[in-house]
Write a structure and sequence with these properties.
alpha/beta, Rossmann fold, Helicase, Ruva Protein, domain 3, Zinc Finger, Delta Prime, domain 3, two-stranded parallel ribbon, 17 helices, 59% helix, globular
Amino acid sequence: MTTPKSALTAGLAQGLKPLYVIQGDEPLLQQECLDELRQSAHARGFVERVVFRVAGVRFDWSEVWSQTQSRGLFAQQQVVEIHIPSGKPGKDGGQVLTQLADMARAMRDEMVNGAAQELLLLVVLPTLDKTQRQSTWFLALERSAEVCQVQKIEPSALPAWLALRLALQGHQVKAGVQGVQTLQFFADRVEGNTLAAHQEIQKLALLYPPGELSFEQVSAAVLNVARFDVFKLSQAVLSGQFARVERMLEGLQAEGEAAVLVHYTLAEEVRVLCRIKLSLAKGQALPMALREQRVWGVREKLIERVIPHLSLSVLEHHLLAAHQLDGVVKGLKSALWPHDAWFALHQWAFSLTQSCSLAK
């Protein structure tokens, strides 16, 4: 059964399950789920913990299986963690995970009949794509495990998340517009880096007693620790968010991201928009066109909103610009664009953002 992270605490109060799967790409929330499970297990007598980190195709899955079968009359209760950062266990790993899922289901039945729990299995995965979620091994885990889903915190939800975290340590911002500005300032400084956000919140607890925090206190304490994901840049462009696009481009450049990758990401988005527009012109339904281009999630909602209002001529204009900029980001000069690759990217990204903002 899949549950959000918030439901984990309530579930643990009723007892431990034999198998938990923690899935998602938010390191802080993933770590907090693990810590909560470990603490709950320790309180119930699980004193031994074995951790396996699956790296590469040569990982020996037989060691994992042997470890889970080593229970005996005098064996201690143990936690076995299996971390799979790639989300790809391979053929051997898939077989072992399927067997562990079957074993966990049998353990669950034994516990219902009064047997003591000797083993706790924790499987840690990133967010999986559709193919991975339909694999035999994951379906087996899903049937047998408590799946804890940790969702990435989107920029729009980050101020509210920060307010909640501050409240947990007795802090709050001023009411009204000033409080909104304080939280947005905080969010802009830590976007994409919730581990750093957590550290900054803890720092505020050390600097100031519980109570109301002013903008000046927050701005003086919080470092600029934002980390930007190049693949989120296109979402900001599609949303027509000029300030965020500017901030992300500056952040990506400062972090040493390759201009070629930034150009490729935006150019691929334009190509996808062009292909969808051509499909619609041929009479294809928008949902089908989106599926063919492998568009889903947040990106799907953004494209659904702007594509009816973007003309093919406008998209072809941006596609031509993408071809011209391909040479610029690779060091070639163009009479039509600034010679500096990042300056040219800023100019093109703003033009794209303007087209999307007009289409909203």
